[in-house]
Hints:
By secondary structure, the chain is an alpha/beta fold. The protein has 2 domains: 3-252, no CATH class; 259-400, no CATH class. It has 21 helices and 5 strands. The chain has helices at 3-9, 34-45, 58-65, 75-80, 84-102, 110-122, 133-143, 146-161, 168-173, 179-183, 192-213, 231-238, 244-252, 259-282, 284-308, 313-326, 334-345, 350-354, 356-359, 363-368, 370-400, and strands at residues 14-19, 22-29, 51-54, 126-128, 221-227. Strands 1-2-5-3-4 form a 5-stranded mixed sheet, with helices on both faces. Strand 1 (14-19) and strand 2 form a beta hairpin.
Amino acid sequence: MTPEQQALFGDEPVRHVQRDGVDYALLGTAHVSRTSAEAVERLLASGHYDAVAVELCPSRYQTLTERDAWRNMDLFRIIREGKAGMMMASLTLSAYQRRIAEQFGIEPGAEMKAAIEAAGRAGIPVQLIDREIGITLRRASRRLSWWKRWLMLNGLVMSMFSRQEISEEDIERLKQGDLLTETFSEFSETAPELYESLITERDRFMAARLRQENESGESRRVLAVLGAGHLEGTAEALGSDDDPEPTVSELNHMPPPSRFIKALPWLIAALVITGFAIGFSRSPELGLALIATWVIINGTLSALGALIAGGHPLTVLTALVAAPLTSLNPTIGAGMVTGAVEAWLRKPRVADFESLRDDVVKLSGWWRNRVSRVLLVFFLSNLGSAIGTWVAGFRMVQQLT
């Protein structure tokens, strides 16, 4: 690399890898760094590259480049397909990133956007090489025990409350890590399983996607814009002998939940129904008392969750009635019912979809925006029902003994 080319990179970390006749320049960036965005623009303006690869998946690319992308969101389908939790997690991560970025007047993902726009001006292709964030979070979650999964959830929730001010020098130091890992920094040391899914797997995935995108040989010089936490791992994986096709397929595969986790909801339902049967076998009064315990505790706590989420009064009433029934049906959760009812009663407006990413940056915005409030209703009524299931179950055991 000539001194002139080195000057274009500035102080940004870079690794050069030659593979199958393609010269890859892996540029390490901070996703909310002004200097990273400027370096990307300089490099692509030089005319040296035939293609640019970015650490984006198709859904994140759409969110970054299409301001109206949220308008096309089918909230009912998201709830029905059980994707509301993943959408909430994605919004929380986005809000965390935007809060950091707001301190310095730069859009989150500015270096990715700069790469996309510069590629358009230069007439070179953009390659999307990252794995879908939903798959990454699901695979991370599946690797954790129920206790560590709860800590992961707490990390997301606490990031909503965090208002810590950090310096631009601290932002630059994020180049040594990864935004997802940073979000869960308080407990990531006790959960090395997260590192595997959030960093190592994505390093391998992006290296395999780079080889897939450039196997035709049309692009001989490719600039890959990555978070700097992925720089070394992706460079190493790019030089490995792994076959890219099975690697991408393997890392996109969702591992099944453990048999115990899968069977637990059915086991709980069977135990509760057995408890009812035992109660009625002893006396009708005891049987009715057990049913009342189940309905009141489970329904009340789920309704309380919907109320805290700011749900419509009819949504709260729906939680009260639906939770005791859905808790005995493992195929549907209370949140799926209450979320759908809230979305029907208070239909999100176009303005809610347009302002969603900005509203969730502030805690109050989660309640103010109708889209995010539906997600809160989904989450908190589900949480209330889950707590109610265990509390009611223990109370029923006391009544039977």
